Amino acid sequence: MLKRLEVFLIAALFILITAIILIIYSKQREEDFKSHSNLIQKASVHGAAYAINLQLLDKHRHVRLFSDEYARLFLQLNKFPADEKTVNDIKGRLQQRFPDFFAYTITDANAVPVLMDLDLEIGDACRLDLSNFARNIKTDKNKLQNAVFIHPQPFHYHYDIMAPLFSNGGAARIFFVSFYLKEINDILKTHELPGQNLMLLRQSDPALIEVTSEGVRDKITREIRLSKAEQSRIKVYEDIPGTDWRLVNLPHATYEKQYLRGLWKEAITILLVVTLALFLLIIVLIKFPGRRVEK
């Protein structure tokens, strides 16, 4: 006959073994979750970065094609800069070609505007971008892409795509087209996963937010700069070629903690259920013994 102490020892041993198994299993699930989460983040960031890069390459290509296709209009403007009909004709064609078109400008080779769109205010960011592009086309005509980043014109945050206008025998001019960031914003929205935040930051200023799935920097409801704690949570990122942008994934602060907390709650619940079941079984064995339990 089993002694009561032996019954309790067997039950305690069974509970201990169950607890060890649950701990090992839960830790394995925890590691699997972190590994799987990291893979998902990488896939999400890479997919969004690839889509943004294709979008920008397409913009560069189409702006150059546009300048070639309507070269006669640009030659007309070169001769008669005050020709409003030609100015509006180019603008109308740009609006038809690019749904996210904002404004356009033409400058001389020294980045001095010779034609200004009334919707566009050339700020410091635009001037810097223009100067860099003007310097590049003077030194290397094969380098015909400007580095893309947000130009923070009030109420009209945008980015610019530039192309040289080479006139016959004359100095090159710069044709640059400004675009809203709705399409970039949509890419982030469609690639963002629950518990994650996709953001474009500045490579030259990694704490500064450029675009999120919520919108452009002037539209978001959070602080426009990442805190040090937020920066430390970023494990996955990818730089966008030809830009000053870095695409990062910022996990929600509580998403992983909540999942892991739920994981361990589940393990504890199972252990409590097993313990309760054994306790009830012991009571049954003591009160209704098939074999008498010695005291």
Distance between the termini: 10 Å
CATH topology (fold) name of the domain at 70-182: Beta-Lactamase
**SSE topology string:** HHHEEHEEHEEHEEH
Strand content: 15-25%
Envelope shape? rod-shaped
Low-pLDDT residue spans: none
The description of the largest β-sheet is:
4 strands, antiparallel
Structural class by SSE content: alpha+beta
Named at the architecture level, the CATH assignment of the domain at 70-182 is 2-Layer Sandwich
Share of helical residues: 40-55%
What is the C-level CATH assignment of the domain at 70-182? Alpha Beta
Radius of gyration: 32 Å
Helices, by number, come to: 7
Number of strands: 8
Give a short overview:
With 295 residues, the chain is of the alpha+beta class. Among the domains are: 32-53 and 187-251, no CATH class; 70-182, 2-Layer Sandwich (Beta-Lactamase), CATH 3.30.450.
What does this structure look like?
With 295 residues, the protein is α+β, with helices and mostly antiparallel strands. Among the domains are: 32-53 and 187-251, no CATH class; 70-182, 2-Layer Sandwich (Beta-Lactamase). It contains seven helices and eight strands. It has helices at 4-69, 71-79, 84-97, 124-139, 182-191, 228-233, 255-287, and strands at residues 101-107, 113-115, 159-165, 173-179, 196-202, 205-212, 236-239, 245-251. The chain has a four-stranded antiparallel beta sheet, with helices on both faces. Strands 6-5-8-7 form a four-stranded antiparallel beta sheet. A hairpin with a 5-residue loop joins strand 1 and strand 2. The radius of gyration is 32 Å and the shape is rod-shaped. The mean pLDDT is 84.
